[in-house]
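ZP: hey, is the 5'-deoxyadenosine complex queued? I don't see it on the tracker
AM: it wasn't, my bad. submitting now with these inputs:
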Amino acid sequence: MTESVFELAPKTEPERQYYFMENASVLIKKREEKVGHHLSFHVTTFGCQMNAKDSEKMTGILTKLGLDEVAEETAADIVLFNTCTIRDNANQKFYGHLGTLNGKNHKNKNRIVAVCGCMMQEKTCVEKLKSSYGFVNIIFGTHNIYKLAELICLYLEKNENVIDVWDKPADIVEDIPAVRKYPFKSGVNIMYGCNNYCTYCIVPYVRGNERSRDAKEIIRECEKLAAEGVKEVMLLGQNVNSYGNRLRNSIGFPELLREVEKVNGIERIRFMTSHPKDLSDELIEVMKASSKICKHIHLPLQSGSTRILKAMNRCYTGEQYLDLALRIRKELPDTAITTDIIVGFPGETEEDVNDTIDMIRQVKYEGAFTFIYSPRTGTPAASMPGRQSKEWIKREFDRVLKAVQDESRLMAGRFLDNVEKVLVEEMNEQDDKLVTGRMSNNLMVHFPGDSSLIGKLVDVKLTEYRGFYYMGRIV
Ligand code: 5AD
Ligand code: SF4
């Protein structure tokens, strides 16, 4: 490709990217002739549903280039890592993978290594890759994943490493090909970024400010997915309850749910994540009236202590959260509530943890993710005083975990003997006579069946509760 090919590229998106997909596939073919074999790729995804969705888009692009997906990271000619930086252990996990990839058995001199995602939005991470992981060829961030074909073109054409990380998001670019991991369910981005600036959280810095997608575009995507056989959509955003707040003349989240409900073929609707400060009574009403919205709300608590919540900039008190959770319990009694909790936030005391445990005992979550606070560079909490010792945090973490486990064992077990609609997702990993499916309330159930059931909604009687999951049989 010559300079003029870059000059000839359309200026508007997504046309520009389709142009580069064509050009990149020509360059890939040339490379295949040179190396004497068909080229393959592997995408490794760390982190949340947003990253999973981004990886599906990038898998779509790589497939469009004529590359075959392979299961083994080490066997691929193009290896792409989509990184997460929510807590430091996510970063460490990624560096571990990179080390393994470049381990002693590595023979493929022509391999291309690309890294993108949240970690790359941090300057120190990019510097570290440049200084210690020189074999990484392409680096980009969260805002330009749709440009993967263009970046591959640049790399192949110039034979130089490419770094393209944007400080800020530009326009939302959609209509890029995607290859979905599951044919029967799909995430749908309804908004990007976050404006809440919880003091511990790096997301607003690496994912940018909050931007909602146009409702018509979202509905169009849901209709397209339904036509392709998707039965369950998960509406994705860092704070879905503020959907549309910053768009002129936009509908809000409850109205959006009503519109998605009208899409024929979509049988289940999930959403993630709800910020408690923005969860409205209208949403509860919409959920009550709906036959498609799943009976599950993920409602991150973070802490039960009003003092710590204030320091976290969560914009609600313990009392307000409890009031909301109990209202959900009353109005939507079959709905499972799950949460996220952080232990070891700067300045947290045993009393604060007691407040968190009190909350767990009152809300009785069906499930909770419990995290140890991890300081993230550039966030306000990272420079707050009052960090507790490792031993203190471990002890308090265990207390919280025990409360979560006690309550969730009872609460998640309350569905025993019910007949529930289950979407069959996969064959059971341990026993090939069983399939594994998900109920509306997000709990899992294993029951006898074969692969022909995958992607189907079936009625299952819950015959045995095994702590966090069920065994059952089709009725
Ligand atoms: N340390 C620990 N946990 C964190 N989370 C976000 N940032 C941090 C951090 N710095 C947790 C929150 C959030 C979930 C996705 O990750 O509980 O809800
Ligand atoms: Fe992070 Fe808070 Fe935004 Fe969630 S709402 S992504 S915890 S800043």
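AM: back. Residues 86-87, 200-201, 300, 302, 340, 342, 371, 373-374, 376 surround 5'-deoxyadenosine (ligand 1) (CB under 6 Å).
ZP: great, adding it to the tracker
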